[in-house]
């Protein structure tokens, strides 16, 4: 390829076009830029009052380290913004400035040591080194000093003999630099409890047995199921005594009054009914819930009824006048269980929002919220003689101390959706899962001494072996469970069991959770 030059013009253009610009034109442009910057400063000088180096003409012999006009312009912009927007916080208050000055003065005074103190410390250090050397005759000079060595206390489990075991015994007067085995928290050994065995199976319902209630005389008990009926059974023989009909949906809660011949029931049809057991008829209706009612409880000393359900509130009713005394709010999802007691907190409720709330009944306000659970809390159970209660969520059972709701311990091992809890006076707690698993626990220590699976009745599916409700009778020697196979099962302790025939299977757990 051949380069062709046009006649009268060079073959290549000039490499520096700035050389062709006349000097007068360059000076005129610089003067115009400088005058414009000066006028701009004069316009805004009242606000900024920041001196600018652009007021003076550029010096041709300026040092290369001087800031460029672009840097000066950026600095002027930042200074103007600081003066305009951060004027009130540019300087610290005088009191804070004085405090910092005093602190710095005190720190400087501490750093200054008198010469006598330094000499005394040097002599003390030299004496300490001489004593340390005198206490270790025969040792090499390059050994680690005794005060800086990590030694292991002899006599502990798993301790090994040090390499210089045949030499002089090292002193152990420096506990801060010794490895000492920390004493573990000793766990209380659980009491022995006899195993529980199935005693009787009661059939009669045509749906899941979702509710149970014991009569104060311990003669009979009531059950509610998905067949919309309430049945009353004889506790001694297990025979059916009475069937009550009136609900149009699944019966979810039952309660028997200890002072009146009344039976209370709630169901998914939004209805709360009061039955007169002398006439076997409904005498009162409690209207107010906006959705299904899933749980209910009676106050032990007052004529007050508490109900909760899918609308996420606990409603307090006057038993006689049917008036709604309080609406205890706070839960964000379905209220699953309610327990009551005579002292504050008189109402405790659990919800599927994974919280447990404690209420002041007189004020109608929340006293405390327990947020330890990670999933929905489906069951609550209060100890009959102690101020403690337990709450259950899928895979977790926690024990709490009243009245503040202090956490006590975890019951570990029941890895299923726990639908029901029950506790008796002998410190035996029962937990029932939706997969048919049954657990018996020692209330004091949280030890599970029995675990088995409930067997569905013949003709039912294996998936119907689920525990829906449970309760102990007043003696605590009979356990009644309502199950998904439409049966009611009665359990009782094995009378022939002894500590020799059924020894306690327990060992301290090192990985037990504490929250």
From TrEMBL:
Involved in pre-mRNA splicing and required for cell cycle progression at G2/M. The lineage of its organism: Eukaryota, Fungi, Dikarya, Ascomycota, Pezizomycotina. WD repeats lie at residues 202-243, 244-285, 286-327, 328-369, 411-451. SUPFAM superfamilies: WD40 repeat-like (SSF50978). Belongs to the WD repeat PRL1/PRL2 family. PANTHER family: PLEIOTROPIC REGULATOR 1, WD40 REPEAT PROTEINPRL1/PRL2-RELATED. This is Pre-mRNA-splicing factor PRP46. CDD domains: WD40 (cd00200). It holds the Pfam family WD40. Associated with the spliceosome. GO terms for biological process: mRNA splicing, via spliceosome. It is found in: Nucleus. Residues 31-44 have a biased composition (Basic and acidic residues). One of its GO terms (cellular component) is catalytic step 2 spliceosome. Residues 1-80, 156-179, 494-515 are annotated as: Disordered. Keywords: mRNA processing, mRNA splicing, Nucleus, Repeat, Spliceosome, WD repeat. It comes from the Eukaryota.
């Amino acid at each position: 390829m051949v380069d062709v030059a046009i006649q009268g013009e060079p073959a290549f253009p000039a490499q520096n076009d700035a050389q062709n610009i006349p000097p007068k034109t360059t000076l005129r442009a610089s003067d115009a830029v400088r005058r414009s910057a000066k006028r701009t400063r004069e316009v805004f000088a009242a606000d900024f009052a920041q001196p600018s180096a652009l007021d003076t003409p550029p010096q041709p012999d300026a040092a290369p380290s001087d800031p460029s006009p672009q840097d000066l312009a950026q600095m002027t912009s930042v200074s103007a913004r600081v003066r305009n927007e951060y004027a009130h916080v540019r300087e610290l208050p005088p009191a804070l400035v004085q405090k910092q000055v005093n602190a710095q003065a005190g720190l400087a005074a501490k750093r200054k040591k008198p010469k006598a103190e330094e000499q005394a410390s040097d002599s003390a250090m030299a004496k300490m080194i001489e004593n340390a050397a005198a206490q270790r005759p025969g040792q090499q000079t390059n050994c680690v000093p005794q005060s800086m060595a990590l030694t292991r206390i002899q006599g502990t489990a798993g301790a090994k003999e040090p390499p210089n075991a045949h030499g002089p015994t090292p002193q152990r007067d420096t506990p801060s630099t010794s490895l000492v085995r920390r004493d573990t928290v000793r766990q209380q050994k659980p009491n022995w409890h006899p195993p529980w065995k199935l005693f009787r199976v009661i059939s009669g319902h045509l749906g899941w047995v979702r509710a149970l209630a014991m009569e104060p005389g311990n003669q009979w008990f009531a059950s509610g199921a998905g067949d919309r009926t309430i049945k009353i059974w004889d506790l001694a023989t297990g025979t059916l005594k009475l069937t009550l009909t009136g609900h149009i949906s699944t019966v979810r809660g039952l309660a028997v009054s200890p002072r009146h011949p009344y039976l209370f029931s709630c169901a998914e049809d939004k209805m709360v009914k009061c039955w007169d057991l002398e006439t076997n008829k409904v005498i009162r209706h409690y209207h107010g819930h906006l959705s299904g009612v899933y749980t209910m409880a009676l106050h032990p000393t007052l004529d007050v009824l508490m109900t909760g359900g899918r609308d996420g509130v606990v409603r307090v009713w006057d038993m006689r006048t049917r008036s709604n005394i309080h609406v205890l709010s706070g839960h964000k999802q379905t209220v699953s269980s309610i327990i009551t007691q005579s002292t504050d907190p008189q109402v405790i409720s659990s919800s599927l929002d994974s919280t447990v709330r404690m209420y002041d009944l007189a004020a109608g306000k929340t006293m405390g919220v327990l947020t330890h659970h990670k999933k929905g809390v489906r069951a609550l159970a209060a100890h009959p003689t102690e101020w403690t209660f337990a709450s259950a969520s899928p895979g977790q059972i926690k024990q709490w101390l009243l009245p503040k709701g202090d956490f006590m311990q975890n019951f570990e091992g029941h890895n299923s959706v726990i639908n029901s809890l029950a506790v008796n006076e002998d410190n035996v707690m029962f937990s029932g899962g939706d997969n048919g698993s049954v657990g018996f626990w020692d209330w004091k220590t949280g030890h599970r001494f029995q675990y088995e699976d409930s067997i569905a009745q013949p003709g039912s599916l294996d998936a119907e072996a689920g525990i829906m409700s449970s309760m102990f009778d007043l003696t605590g020697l009979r356990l009644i469970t309502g199950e998904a196979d439409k049966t009611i099962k009665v359990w009782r302790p094995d009378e022939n069991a002894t500590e020799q025939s059924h020894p306690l299977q327990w060992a301290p757990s090192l990985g037990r959770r504490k929250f």
